[in-house]
Amino acid sequence: MEAIELHRYDEEFLAGIAQKQLLIAVNQKTGAALGYHERGWCAQQDPNVRWQRASGKAELLSYTVTRRAYSPDFPVPLVHGLVELEEGPRLVCRIETDAPESVQVGMALQAAFDGKGLIFRIVRGRTVTTAGRKTARTTTNQSKPMAA
């Protein structure tokens, strides 16, 4: 089996996960959080980018329920979701739930860590607000930079 070569960007993110920290890349000049898929700045060795802890608050954008086990380490049913962090970046993750039928798009989630890595837990009673986020893709003046 071939070794997987990680990009420096992936290494930074995964080093944070190993330390039980959810990190995001932020442009220091604009305050915009850079999405996990945006690698152009990394190729240029942009000195204006720094890594910082994310709040861990997220909104569920989409999900799927796996009912066929692919590993004994991950019992079924297993829920994977696409989440948008409060700061703007999106990522695919595991969602912890005993009742996959209760999972709904738009749910509030909170990042946590278990023995296998990053996981998101459902937060009851918290509403999700997506207005006012500033990401590299945002073009309106309504957004505010993230606090340093």
Question: Can you describe this structure?
Answer:
This protein is mainly beta and 148 residues long. The protein folds into 2 domains: 46 residues, no CATH class; 66 residues, OB fold (Dihydrolipoamide Acetyltransferase, E2P) (Beta Barrel). Helices cover 10% and strands 34% of the residues. The strands form 2 sheets. It has a 5-stranded mixed barrel. A 3-stranded antiparallel sheet has the order 2-1-3, with helices on one face. A hairpin with a 5-residue loop joins strand 1 and strand 2.
Structure in a nutshell:
The protein has 148 residues and is mainly beta. The protein has helices at 8-18, 40-43; strands spanning 23-27, 33-34, 49-53, 57-66, 78-85, 90-96, 108-114, 117-122. Strand 5 and strand 6 form a beta hairpin.
CATH class of the largest domain: Mainly Beta
Determine the structural class based on helices, strands and strand pairing.
Answer: mainly beta
Strand content: 25-35%
Named CATH architecture of the largest domain: Beta Barrel
Which fold name fills CATH's third level, the topology of the largest domain? OB fold (Dihydrolipoamide Acetyltransferase, E2P)
> What is the helix content?
10-25%
Rg? 16 Å
> Would you report the number of β strands?
8
Distance between the ends: 42 Å
Helix-strand sequence: HEEHEEEEEE
- Overall shape: it is globular
Count of runs of 4 or more consecutive helical residues: 2
Query: Biggest sheet: strands, sense, closure?
Result: 5 strands, mixed, barrel
Across the major sheet, the strand order is 4-5-6-8-7
Domain count: the total is: 2
Mean pLDDT: 82
